[in-house]
Every structure is written in C-alpha cells, then in structure tokens.
C-alpha cells in the first residue's frame, strides 16, 4: 500500500481496488474512509451499509468480503468489522514509522498536500486599509488571517494572488487636499507624514461640517482631482506614496507581502462598463435618481437596493467591487476570490455576490467562486472594541511595539545570560508572533478578548509556548552535536514501542488532517490547535523517554520523532505567518 500524505485517501483508494476485485464497484459501491479516533490512529470506512441496503444484501457479509481482499494492509493496519458493516483500520507501529520516514522534509509534505487545491487560481483580497490614515488594531485581523490563508492555499497547490485593495480614492480627498493647501505643518510632515495627513483630514472634515463654504471648496478640490489637475494630483500621489510606505513597514513586521496593490483609483476608468452592462442586461433600474439593483426573491434585498451609481452620479463600493470582479476574472484569471473582511460587511457582500452571479449568467461567462471570509472584533477586557483610554483606535505600530517590549521582559526573565542584542532579536519574533497567533488561534468568525497576560506567556496555547517548544528541540540537537534533519541512523530506527512514542507518532501522522481542516474551511485555528497539542505530546514524550540512549535503534527512532516534531511545528508556524527561532 502507498502510505501517501493523506492516509484516509490512501486507504480509500486501496478499499476501492478491493471492492473492484470483489465485484462490487460495478453496482455502485463507493467507500469513504474517514479518521475515526485521533488518539489511536483509527480510520473507518463507511458506505457498506448504504450499498447493502440498495442491493438487499447482508452488510456484515459484504464487509467480510472486502476485508478478505485486504491482505496487503495486514503489516500496517489492524482490521476489524464493527456494527452492521463498518470497517475499522488501526495504524500499527510499522505504519507510523513508514509514514514518518516517507515525509522527512518540507518538500515531501508540500508535495503530498499540493493535490488539494491544484488548478485553482485564488485571489485573496485582504488588509485593504485606507490611505492617509494610520493602520490601527481594526486592521489586524484581515491582515493576519488573510496572510495565513494565502500560505495555506499555496502550500496546498493553489496559485495565490495576494491583492491589497487599498482605499485611495473618494470624497475624503477633497477635504484632505483643502486642508493640505491651508493648514500643512511642514515640520510635522517631515517628522511623521502619515500622522500629519490624518490630522489634516480631521481638520478639513471638521471645517467642512461647520462651514458650507468650506464644504463647497472641498468639493471643488475633489472635482479638480478627478479632472487630473496637476497640483491636486501631485498632492494625492504624495499622500498615497507616503501611506503605502508606512503600511509596508507594518507588513514587513508581520511577514506579509502582496502580489498586487490595486487601489480603488485603479478602477476609475473601468466603471462605465459596469453601469452599461447592468442596465443593458435589465438587472439595474433607476430609483430616485440612482442606478440600483433589487433582488425580489430575497427577503431583505427585494426592498433594500444595491446602489450601483448614486443620485449625484458618483460611484461607490458596489461599483468598484463589480469592476474588480471583472478585472480579477479577466487579467488575473481567478477561479476563486476570497474577501477577508469583517462580518459587519456581510450584507454588502451578499448583495454583491447575488448581483455578480446574475450579471455573469446574463453575459454567459464563468464567474469565479466568490466567498466572504468574515471575522469578528478584537475586544478589550471590558467586552467592547479595543480602544485607548481616550477612546481612540490603537495604532497597529504601537500595539506591535508594546508586544515586542513585553516579550523582551519575558525572554530576559527566561534566559538573562543571552547578550542583549540577541534577546532583542528574539523578542521581536516572539512579540509580533504572539499578536499574530493570539488572533489566528481563535475561530475567525468569533470576537475575542485581547489580553496581554494570556497572549505573551510560556503557558497555554500561545506563540511563546510553541516557539519555545521549537527552540527546545533545537537545543536537543545542539547538545548531541547534531543538525536537525541530518540526524544519522534514522534508517535503522525500529518501530515505536513506548506509550509516549506511540502517542507522539500518532499525533504526527495527523498533520494532514489538521492541514485539510484549516485549508478546507479557511479557518487557521484548526492548525493552531493541532500545533499546540503536538507540542504537548512532544513534551510528554521527552519527559518520559530519554533520547540519547545507548541502543542505536531506540536512539534512532527517538531522534526521528524529534526531527519530525520539529519539522511539523516549524512548517505549521510558517504556514500561519510566524517566524521561527532556534534559541529562546
């Protein structure tokens, strides 16, 4: 039997071959093998009972006929029939050893995982902050979750296009340019340009609200920008350039990169086909001077319009998002588009997807699979959205800086003998990773409470705990004067025997299940839970069974367990977007 990356699928193929030999497949027998018991490494085959009912046969007799064709599995699996025809497969120690031997590096893991998403080109729309504003804690979840999902999909074989759809156009620029021309503080601009732009926008907005004359002047500045006035276009370009530079400093800390950064301004000349296409197809209609789409079959949207063009002739998010779908379908060749946006935008995306689906049906073209990956809110310990004491949004750069400083105190307390520069470097990895992991370890659809005490701790399901587990395994190899991945004698390893060895080996071969759960549902917390449990099982193993024993075969198999645990912990953390450490 081929012990491939996904054992359930390998068993499924083997059982299908056995059914063919037994003459069952021609009558429509389709077995389905699923993990049944993660503790003991059990799998269970379903489908016998349903087939037997259709054929009016004894399900247990059919199961026995199948098992009689599975002699090739006997060295690797214990076979048993349960109930009315369920076939149970229990991994034997020899199968555990064989799987771990076959998956000895990241390349082997990636090759095994790559079949899941092959053939898909997935555009992931995430982060997407507005220019002229500081990134704050409200931008954290989209950035962190989006990057983890990109890495999971790419590891599983998809072609991933990371798209940062920044908000770099709109009515706010009229007010901002008005204030820029009248209230610019050159010293503040030189010191912190993004902070100065944010101050100018607030000043322009307040002035426009207080004085109709100012509002009219700001609107004229916007008209000049839209008409490509050189002065206003230059100010706008400078604002966006500075904003993107500031965003990139945050992205660099988080290990995020984008393939394309196409803001709303990119689609300005691509809006007319949206108006024309929806009107010509009969989907859009005039309502109170606006161009809108109704969905009469929907309980809410039959009276709640999806506004495509406002009554003053201006575009909005709906227009730009439809133009974006056209572009992603065309030049980007997307088969799937994922929008990592908070759950408060659920109505917008539901209307957007309904409209796009009907429009593409009218055009007769293929529509990518569109999915809104919603997420909850980061809450303070008072149960309200996380803010500063003065009620302002917490800047993301300040949040990360505090995480790094708190991590420095943790690292210094744990290993005060390390040089300060090394402790600072470790603290940067632990601090930023702690913020990322605290977010990713939650079900993305749920709100979660931000707690420094729980986040930056060597206890519990935290980044610090997992990074310390990685560093601990590296220290084992250093003490033995070995390099991970190159430990001699793995080929001489004997089958696992002790309870701790077996428990750890069984957890290791469950990595594909955790990866499939996280990627299939696009919920990284499934992988986080697995890594936490794996680190715990390794700690139990290491405390129970000495690695550096004299017997070569025992030493080899325990080094193999250390190697594979390190491989899966590091691979998993990197898939989540975290950097790793060899010392902590």
Notable features of this structure?
584 residues, alpha/beta, Gyrase A, domain 2, Rossmann fold, 4 domains, 4-stranded antiparallel beta sheet, 4-stranded parallel beta sheet, 22 helices, 13 strands, 53% helix, flat
Structure overview:
The chain is α/β, with parallel strands linked by helices and 584 residues long. The protein folds into four domains: 7-91, Gyrase A, domain 2 (2-Layer Sandwich); 121-163 and 266-373, HUPs (Rossmann fold, 3-Layer(aba) Sandwich); 172-254, no CATH class; 396-575, Isoleucyl-tRNA Synthetase, Domain 1 (Orthogonal Bundle), CATH 1.10.730.10. Helices cover 53% and strands 10% of the residues. The chain contains 22 helices and 13 strands. A four-stranded antiparallel beta sheet has the order 1-2-4-3. The chain has a four-stranded parallel beta sheet with strand order 6-5-10-11, with helices on both faces. The protein has a three-stranded antiparallel beta sheet with strand order 7-8-9. Helix 7 crosses helix 10, helix 20 runs antiparallel to helix 21 (525-544) and helix 21 packs antiparallel against helix 22. The radius of gyration is 29 Å and the shape is flat. The two termini are 42 Å apart. The mean pLDDT is 92.
Short précis:
This protein is α/β, with parallel strands linked by helices.
CATH class of the largest domain: Mainly Alpha
Distance between the termini: 42 Å
Largest beta sheet: strand ordering: 1-2-4-3
Mean pLDDT: 92
The outline comes out as flat
By secondary-structure content and strand pairing, the structural class works out as alpha/beta
The proportion of strand residues reads 5-15%
Task: Profile the largest sheet.
Answer: 4 strands, antiparallel
- Taking all Cα atoms into account, the compactness measure Rg is 29 Å
